[in-house]
Amino acid sequence: MTEFPRSLRVADIVASTLHAHRARHAFGVPGGEVVTLIDALQQAGIPFHLARHETSAALMAAGASAISGGPELLVTTVGPGLANAVNGIADAAQEHVPLVVLSGVVDRATRARYTHQVIDHARLLRPLVKASFEIEPESAGATVARALALAMAEPMGPVHLDLSPAVAAMMVADAPIPAPPARFAPLPTSADPAIRLLAERLAGAERPLVIAGLAAARSGAGPALRHLAETLGAPVITTYKAKGLLPEDHPLSLGAAGLSPLADGILLPLVREADLVLCLGYDPIEMRLGWLDFATDPTRLVEVAPVAIDHGMHHAGTQVSGDPAHILEALSGLLPARQSWPGGAPDAARAALRRAFASVADWGPHAIVEHLNAAAGEDGLVTVDSGAHRILLSQKWVAARPLSLLQSAGFCTMNAALPLAIGARVADPARRVFAVMGDGGLEMGIGELATVRDLGLPLTIIVFQDRSLALIAMKQASARLAPAGVALGETDFATIARGFGGDGITVESMDAFRYALEASRHRPGFSLIACRFDASAYDGAF
């Protein structure tokens, strides 16, 4: 129902509406234009967390949203504050994050004459947000509620709200606070013609295969997917964002794909051999260019997703719209258990993947990933930055649960791991969180160590220190070009971490890494472990 308090500031209406719609955390950098808004958020029960850069703040909100499943907030000041956040907002657009961007704006009375820091916020963000509104006193609650509904509608994505200081402080009598409606969606049943058609297609396939993506993970489709895979004997590939949807130690799991040519060389021939490919909550933005035309025969491809996804990477002959988990559950009683894939090609592919990504030395990126995987356990949450280390980790990591490995997979922005980890830990204070970064990524956003310190977060930060932008160097080498702009100097990250109030150590052996990782478990503050090795350790790794 809608509540009608006696009199509130417009900023209070905005904040109370956000809270009513499940927003619980705000991240950003304050400015004079948003001080009233920040005060209102705090009073409404939405704490404001100070970041050191607006793009990092947007990624922190994304990390919190991955845990809460709801909208989270980015607060920026006018002009340069919002412009600084563009990378993070673009990431939210391509990663389908329901990010609410709240920006201050110069008061309307002076905007036409006053040019200092004034830019057209809505026009700047037009390619990146689902909608942009300026909040007015008479319709503040309704505008915020509308923006939230758009952010949470599939495919989810960011929305933008401008609020001027004068409007934020204005008092409104009998101001409504719109609550979210009670939403009901009829569930599909085994009698639904679309479900029966899908069951017939799956039952008639001798070599069925599933490719699952983020929307399937968000819908909680894991148990139903496991039942389907075991019933049909169908192997399952996921995107990096959906790792663990089927536990990756399961014999039908082929792990994740997305950026590794080595993995593609094993998985794509198997996909092309399948006579039915079920794309479950799969968005091709989560894959690499090699998957552009993996299905040459559209009749073999069936898409199941909450809404039809806008892309041109392949053409599916059949599309079923709906919640992936509910659709699989409706299928469960219609498919008899049977064997598929005569000849055992999926088992051979799984063995080939194990060999391809096996550790090659006692120390180096492979060994670091393996030990961290064991130390994190099933309940740990890991975030990983873009770079060579991300590709290797995403292929080697054995995920037992979905949404336990967070990364920027569609936009692939650098410096994502630390802010994602901050947001996730703020949203779930009981969970152990690890941020895995390259030295280039950490140097890009090293100021956020101050955010970790000020928030008192016991994060464990693992730095793969190869003194190189290794992935770009590998691409230069493959193109037979001389290296240029990829060498990094020697940064003493351990000393910097101590300067920011955490614990820092540099390690160059597995024994030292094991000790440092175990010691970090018991510290009240953050720990940074800089793992030094040569970039040549990535040669042929993925």
UniProtKB/TrEMBL annotation:
The keyword ATP-binding does not apply. InterPro entries: DHS-like_NAD/FAD-binding_dom, THDP-binding, Thiamin_PyroP_enz_cen_dom, Thiamin_PyroP_enz_TPP-bd_dom, TPP-bd_CS, TPP_enz, TPP_enzyme_TPP-bd. Residues 9-122 form the Thiamine pyrophosphate enzyme N-terminal TPP-binding domain. It holds the Pfam family TPP_enzyme_M. The keyword ATP-binding does not apply. Residues 385-530 form the Thiamine pyrophosphate enzyme TPP-binding domain. Residues 196-331 form the Thiamine pyrophosphate enzyme central domain. Keywords: Thiamine pyrophosphate. It comes from the Bacteria. Belongs to the TPP enzyme family. This is Decarboxylase. It comes from Xaviernesmea rhizosphaerae. The lineage of its organism: Bacteria, Pseudomonadati, Pseudomonadota, Alphaproteobacteria, Hyphomicrobiales.
